[in-house]
Amino acid sequence: MRPTLLPLQVLLSIFAPTLRQRFEENAIWEKEYPEISRAISPNDRRECHQQFKDLKDPQLHWDLIGLTIDQRLIRLGYPVERINVTTEDGYILGLYRIPFSPKSPIVEGIVKKAVILYHGLMANGLSFLLQDGSRNLAMLLADSGFDVYIANARGNSYSEGHVNPDMTLDNWEYWDFSFHEVGIFDLPAIIETVTDITKQESMYYVGHSMGSTTLAVLLSERPEYNRRIATAFLLAPAIFLGHSWLYAQPFIKSVNYYQYTFNNFFAGRLEGEILPELLVGSVPATRCSIEEYACGICSNLFFRQFGYDGPQINYTKIGQFLEVYPVTSSSKAMLHFFQLIKTNKFCQYDDGFNEPRYSQRSPSCYNLENIFSPLLIFWGSNDSTVKPQDVAKTVSHIPKTALKENIKVDSKYFIHMDFVFAKDADILVYKRIVDVMLNATYG
After folding, report:
1. Is 78 helix (H, G, I), strand (E, B) or coil?
2. Phi and psi dihedrals of 9, rounded to 5?
3. 3-state secondary structure of 365
4. Active-site annotation, residues
5. In the chain, what are the domains?
6. CB contact at 8 A, 235 and 429
7. Which long-range contacts (CB under 8 A, 24 or more apart) does 346-349 make?
């Protein structure tokens, strides 16, 4: 479809019955789960300044900025191994292992159960290392006696390699993937690698946002892998997204009119790091770690992007958050999520030429009925990306025998990024995850 028709298509989308229906549905859900989005308040600003005054180790605060996953773990006193994982289609992924911790050393005869942690769209494995001390999920699991594997999706700075020397980052073909390929190729390769190392056929899995999407793709399309997942914990699962970003939907619902232009403009590669630089200035991670910026423009941008959760934000960590999100990914992955929002369905990528690939005019949808791994879903009532009503639709499509728990996080303002960033995520979310794993409640 011609991009010149885009303005007309956007205008028509504003008045489309489906969009009106989504706003009406949203209004009903908003009575119970009102979406709260606002700028930093004077009270929030005072709390921000107080957090900087209360920093226990100001030197550590600055030392952690700019560190990679392995450098950060070493600085915090944890062992780490980098493992290169090669996928069936030739991508080389960076998998980081925490085999033990100072609080849970290796003991002869004791086998540590493996856990895979998978991040969201335009993020990386640092997602699971943001909170202070050992309150982040990766180190908490290591302290609890688990063998932890932090995954990184193809295309981010930890997973840029390819067995074909011609498949460089400047090659358009390198970026021809969405979350579908991550689910079909990356996850199986990671699971097989973990099994090779640990000799364990099954393992635990924690996925945030797109990390949940990719697991749903794998278990739907390659159901034999259900037996390889002892229990999966889906944090803000981005599966059905029909009510996501409602006020941007006139543009999103016109995706078929501009997806080719969009891909051409970015040459398949979305360099997410550029956006904070445009908004904040050069070296945004460093700048947003300075009290003046963290308590002003940086926290305001965070709230505007993800929604308000002043009570749970650690303002001193906003700069470090920018090393996690947004980072480089494929433009096709973003477009695929736009398609999920447009259709309110969980289907494969629509490239406009579907019959040769799917033998039908529209792309094939993922069959969630194929899932039988035990699943626990966690969601936040103020999540503007994965809205409560969309979580409800996801829950309705997962077999009852697979869905073990559907948990609303007990925090009024809990937003999408709180699952990896909130001050009390260890109490509100991670405690239940660790308890289920330690007790092998579901497998």
Report:
1. coil
2. -65, -40
3. strand
4. 209, 383, 416
5. 3-439 (3.40.50.1820)
6. yes
7. 346/216, 346/239, 346/240, 346/397, 348/180, 349/178, 349/180
